[in-house]
Design a protein that fits this description.
Bound molecules: aspartic acid, magnesium ion
CATH topology of one domain: Carbamate kinase
Strand content: 15-25%
Radius of gyration: 26 Å
């Protein structure tokens, strides 16, 4: 079985729902299909909840009417038959009637607020299931609220999800497509709750892990992860394969990909995650798995607004406990450190939140000397498979950057990352030369050498 997840834009227009049906039909595997709310709906529902909380019932009612009008015109284009449309109207009337009744309950509690927010996914899945039924597809709707559970800390209960879901699946062995809601779940108080904003990816990963799916596919409107920032670098391309660790390194750099914790259940159970593009379904997308067969250097990413702090102390020479003292200060000011390099008598670190920089510096000066901080720096991160026996990787990277002053280098912390610190004025140049040298130069050379 596979798990396919479609986000808000992928279900946001009636014709997009039509193409999802086609995509499903073009692939023979049995699937659980996780849907988000239509784009814009979750925000609208949150805003309705806010009005209700502020006792602005007239405003809340107005927002409900506006949103309902959107759904009424949506279903007119979604269904092809009178019967289909009647069913769609029934769903929209019922769900919006329920939203109205929730707004009326006083005092307005977080419990109602979460129920209102859950309506987005309830609407999209019920409407889509009714559409598949209208079209004579062999599908069924599994209410996520019957199997998706979180514990008192908000953590998903994988074992309980697995048990409940497999029981439900065994009751419907003949169904080819199983539709369910992303994002929503129940908490230990049996209330409706959710997996936080953007949580539908998490739902897909939890389901995929729970049923040990063959593959989890996340369908969006971009063609997978790119090897470099397409806003700055010309010749970027989608990465075919990434390991879970490489994906996590890139996620930190704000690459447009799943949040690393989102794919944890998939990683735990070794279920590959594929990022696919609804606009270009035939493209292979990006596959995130335990192992990959691809090239050793996978991607380049950059993180802006970095400050470097240079700490010296002759007391560090052959001493222990010095680093602890340094890091205690960062801990005290709740400031995460990104990169670290050390020599016998100095430590350099980078931070991206310089809110407490003055206080941090003052505390550090009590036992060390500080060189002037470098602000406006950039971490360039090269991600790939750099296991200990690989040779020549650092050489290729440094050779590409030979005209750019480098302030720090960090290599060997993990087998997936080489990071460099440069001034942000060199960022575009660095990304571009690295792109050419690491991704195109080799290919060009290969062509030359293999040419007849
Ligand atoms: N609809 C929810 C949100 O907008 C969940 C999701 O789309 O992943 O955050
Ligand atoms: Mg999303």
């Amino acid at each position: 079985m596979q798990v396919w997840k479609f986000g808000g834009t992928s279900v946001g227009k009636p014709e997009r729902m039509h193409s999802i049906r086609e995509l499903l039909n073009n692939d023979p595997s049995r699937k659980i299909v996780v849907l988000s709310a239509l784009s814009g709906t979750t925000n609208a529902l949150i805003s309705i909840g806010e009005s209700a909380k502020a006792n602005e019932d007239v405003a809340a009612a107005g927002k409900i009417d506006d949103l309902k009008a959107h759904y009424e015109s949506f279903i007119k284009a979604l269904y092809a038959t009178e019967t289909g449309l009647a069913k769609g109207k029934e769903i929209v009337d019922a769900e919006f009637g329920y939203i109205r009744s929730l707004v009326g309950i006083k005092p307005f509690a977080p419990k109602q607020e979460k129920e209102i927010v859950a309506e987005g996914e309830l609407l999209s899945t019920k409407m889509f299931q009714a559409y598949l039924e209208e079209q004579g597809e062999n599908s069924v709707l599994f209410p996520a609220l019957e199997f998706m559970r979180i514990d008192a800390d908000g953590e998903p209960e994988l074992a309980a999800i697995e048990e409940k879901l497999s029981a439900m699946l065994s009751q419907h062995p003949d169904k080819q497509t199983i539709i369910t809601q992303g994002f929503i779940c129940r908490n230990p108080r049996e209330e409706v709750d959710n997996l936080k904003r953007g949580g539908s990816d998490y739902t897909a990963s939890l389901i995929g892990g729970a049923i040990r799916a063959e593959e989890i596919q996340i369908w969006t409107d971009i063609d997978g992860m790119h090897n470099n920032d397409p806003r700055i670098v010309k010749r970027t391309f989608p990465i075919r394969e990434l390991t879970f660790e490489e994906a996590a390194e890139l996620a930190y750099f704000g690459a447009k990909i799943l949040h690393p914790s989102t794919i944890t259940p998939a990683k735990l159970r070794g279920v590959p995650v594929r990022l696919k593009n609804t606009m270009q379904p035939e493209a292979p997308g990006t596959l995130i798995a335990n192992q990959t067969s691809e090239r050793e250097i996978k991607a380049i990413a950059a993180k802006d607004n970095i400050t470097a702090i240079y700490i010296h102390s002759t007391r560090m020479l052959n001493a222990y406990g010095f680093l602890r003292r340094v890091f205690e200060i960062f801990e005290k000011y709740k400031t995460p450190v990104d990169m670290i390099t050390t020599s016998e008598v100095s430590v350099s670190v980078t931070i991206d939140n310089d809110e407490n920089l003055q206080a941090i510096s003052a505390d550090l000066r009590e036992f060390a000397d500080l060189e002037e901080h470098d602000r406006d720096q950039n971490i360039i991160c090269i991600v790939g498979n750099f296991s200990a026996d690989k040779e020549g990787i650092a050489l290729k990277v440094l050779d590409a950057l030979k005209h750019i002053p480098i302030r720090m280098i960090s290599y060997g912390a993990s087998e997936h990352n080489l990071s460099l610190l440069i001034h942000s004025k060199y960022k575009a140049e660095a990304l571009n030369v690295l792109n050419e040298r690491l991704f195109f130069y080799e290919d060009a050379m290969k062509d030359i050498f293999t040419a007849p």
